[in-house]
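The data are passed on as follows:
___
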Amino acid sequence: MKNSKIEWTDATWNPSTGCNKVTAGCKNCYAETMAKRLQAMGASGYENGFEFTLMPERIDLPRKIKKPTKFFVNSMSDLFHEDMPFDFLDRVFNVIKETPHHQYQILTKRENILEDYFTNRKVPKNVWLGVTVENSKTKNRIDILRNIDAEIRFLSIEPLIGEVGEIDLTNIHWVIVGGESGHKARPMKSEWAIDIQRQCNEQNVSFFFKQWGTWGEDGVKRSKKSNGRILLGQEWNEEPIYNIV
């Protein structure tokens, strides 16, 4: 549990760590790099590096936080990983339900497991449920997400590594877009991001532009900070309307 540098959340909570690659967007995974670095430093919880690992000792951490907090769940893993037992997931969601003063943002690339888990379960009202979309090949995840009854449904189109094309944002409340960072980052073309912003505007969906990443709007490789967050002449920090339970 720690404060987060991620622009669209307050803190991170990782009841599991580690993952494995499932689509092209995973190629330069920041979490894998960080996990191996933490393992080398001897950090608690990263003894297994980036192998999927349950962290039951972290389950109750949100209960100890009294200040209403927006948590990104599993910044260092995927909550719906294929090795995640459903009974452990039940424990995670029990904590979420019992801490309604917090909001929990959950993001997955494993939409089929997400769908399976919620077939006979309800999504707590304080959960923002999202899927990652990296290009046109992965936008099928949106169709599964839109049919799950969640208070907030969102897309993380990051890293945006290819044109997404036309997208149906029915029942989607929020879209985050960002380029890839790191020395092996793949460039994001400005027209891809601009086209997504246009569609959000046309379909009345909140739009958040997170970053250009390593490659700037001008196609020059430099630090992420130097490239900034300006798209179409402004920063886009829109968020969906959420009514606290």
Remarks:
- The CA atoms of residues 169 and 203 lie 7 Å apart.
- The chain has one domain: 2-235.
